[in-house]
Amino acid sequence: MYAGRAMVLQAAEAYDTGEDRKLGPSCAKYFCSEMAGRVADRAVQVFGGMGYMRGVVVERLYRDVRLFRIYEGTSQIQQVVIARRLLR
């Protein structure tokens, strides 16, 4: 969580100053969405079968986190953006 927060804050600062408007935001989005997905997956694992039952907070979290990997560019698109910027 600390790493994700630090990445977002640094990316936001660089974006605001106009220093970096692509690499930082893409790295932060990719890292944080993948991290949230791993956390939600483990939470469902801890809850077992109950993790899929409607009404359980973990089930809702798992569904919502899945969308983080999709909107504003999928994880694969973020990887392409990051790779292109690093190869320049």
Overall shape: it is elongated
Q: What's the CATH topology label?
A: Butyryl-CoA Dehydrogenase, subunit A, domain 3
Work out the strand percent: under 5%
Radius of gyration: 15 Å
Number of domains: 1
At CATH level 2, the architecture is Up-down Bundle
SS class: mainly alpha
Tally of helical segments: 4
Specify the CATH class.
Mainly Alpha
3D structure, described in words:
The chain is mainly α. The chain has one domain (2-87): Butyryl-CoA Dehydrogenase, subunit A, domain 3 (Up-down Bundle), CATH 1.20.140.10. The protein is built from 4 helices and no strands. The protein is elongated, with a radius of gyration of 15 Å. 12% of the residues are buried.
Question: Layout of SSEs?
Answer:
Blueprint (H helix, E strand, L loop, with lengths): L1 H16 L5 H25 L9 H12 L6 H13 L1
Can you describe this structure in just a few lines?
By secondary structure, the protein is mostly helical.
List keywords for this structure.
single chain; 88 residues; mainly alpha; Butyryl-CoA Dehydrogenase, subunit A, domain 3; 4 helices
